[in-house]
Amino acid sequence: MSCFFSSVLKLPSTCLVTLAFSPGCPIPILSFQLTFVGVNLIFFPQHFLGLAGMPRRYADYPDAFAGWNYISSIGSYVAVAGLAVFFMNLIYAFAKKKAAAQNPWGEGATTLEWTVPSPPNFHTFEELPKFEDGQGTQKSHG
Fold first, then answer.
1. Where are the domains of the chain?
2. How crowded is the C-beta side of 27, counted as CA atoms within 13 Å?
3. 38-47, 65-74, 109-118, 133-142: which has the minimum mean pLDDT?
């Protein structure tokens, strides 16, 4: 699931840099939050069930465990809703192709990927770019 969470959070930046269009800004955040809450609702109650003595991988369980299993089932629906929002946003971003600004993160974003046009040209740099770190030392990227 951590791969999925990082993918959801990386989607807006990836669309901006490589495809030059942006998905809806609050939508990836909503997708992440729904999926995060859903996954935690799925697996956190399982800890209580294990402490109460329920064995793992049982299709049928005593009624004493029904409450926590119900909460875990609700979590699966919340996580699926988060996935649905993620895929709807992905389809929306590809369908609308809303043009991204040259540097949509503002003036504070001065890293190398925001100094080139979006999408970047093939063979953007003829030689490795040079930059200064915080102490004034020149370094080569690469």
1. 2-100, 104-142
2. 17
3. 133-142
